[in-house]
Design goal:
The protein contains 15 helices and 2 strands. It has about 280 residues and is mostly helical. The protein has a two-stranded parallel sheet with strand order 1-2.
Length: about 280
């Protein structure tokens, strides 16, 4: 289940809010065993595990380098971004919020032969070396563009289906804000601006970052789906565009970013025990 390195204060908080209202009425939520099976068949378990890879960029958000934290850094990152803990947190939320019929709809597609091939490709892409992946993806995308390949349009449609309200950038900005503020409270850095000033500073480069994300998203898709035919990708795109699947992705995105945000805040607090204060 390709969530992309992107995907909101609204959705991230919605995941927690939904836990509080689950059971108030409506369709029946899925049981835990089915949710765990759902994570595996859709590849969302690997997408959650890949959050740990983002820990490598955490110091850069603070204007620091991993080396600044000494030899303890790798141990700290592995401890905070514990895959078992992240999967448990996601499963807890989904058990309370993912309705049975929606689970069955999404799992039904990903359990097909095409669905499982897609999951294998997406899982491999999630865990691939970023530099090598995007270098190859850029070359593949250039060839597709040169040939005016219709698969590029499918990549864009897939991205829109997964994130129809284009909230991915808002989500990543919110995670960055919460991480930087948590680091400030923990004494890792000293902010010279308040929260509003921090948001304004990040917003200055929003358009440029959005363009870079769009390009990297296409490169990632070109790499991930390089072994699939146009017809197979068309089938996948149409499956992603079905209303029930879009609802599932909306919730999955919320869970993904809530888990990521939670771990980054925990990381900031732990960094406060290792790093002398530095101005940002």
């Amino acid at each position: 289940m390709q969530l992309g390195s992107l995907r909101i204060l609204g959705l991230a908080l919605m995941a927690l809010a939904l836990v509080g209202v689950a059971g108030a009425g409506g369709a029946r939520a899925a049981d835990r065993d089915r949710v765990e099976a759902f994570l595996e068949v859709t590849g969302f378990d690997v997408a959650l595990d890949s959050i740990a890879l983002s820990a490598t960029s955490a110091p850069n958000m603070l204007g620091l380098e991993a080396d600044d934290f000494g030899t303890q850094w790798m141990f700290l990152a592995e401890s905070v971004f514990d895959t078992e803990l992240m999967r448990k947190r996601a499963t807890d939320i989904l058990e309370a919020t993912l309705e049975d019929d929606l689970l069955a709809h999404a799992a039904g597609f990903y359990a097909t032969d095409l669905g499982q091939r897609l999951v294998v490709a997406e899982n491999e892409a999630h865990l691939a070396d970023d530099d090598a992946k995007y270098a190859e993806g850029a070359e593949l995308l250039a060839v597709l563009e040169e040939n005016d390949d219709p698969r590029i349009d499918l990549f864009r449609r897939m991205g829109h289906a997964i994130d129809p309200n284009d909230i991915g950038m808002q989500a990543m900005t919110e995670i960055q804000v919460r991480f930087i503020l948590a680091a400030s409270y923990a004494g890792v850095i000293s902010l010279r601006v308040d929260e509003d000033g921090l948001r304004a500073a990040l917003a200055e480069n929003a358009d440029e970052v959005a363009k870079e994300v769009e390009v990297s998203s296409l490169q990632n898709a070109a790499y991930t789906y390089k072994d699939f035919t146009f017809e197979e990708l068309k089938t996948y795109t149409e499956a992603l565009e079905e209303p029930d699947m879009m609802t599932v992705y909306e919730l999955m995105n919320a869970v993904h970013f809530e888990v990521m945000s939670n771990r980054f805040e925990a990381l900031a607090l732990r960094l406060g025990q290792m790093q002398p204060e530095q101005e940002l």
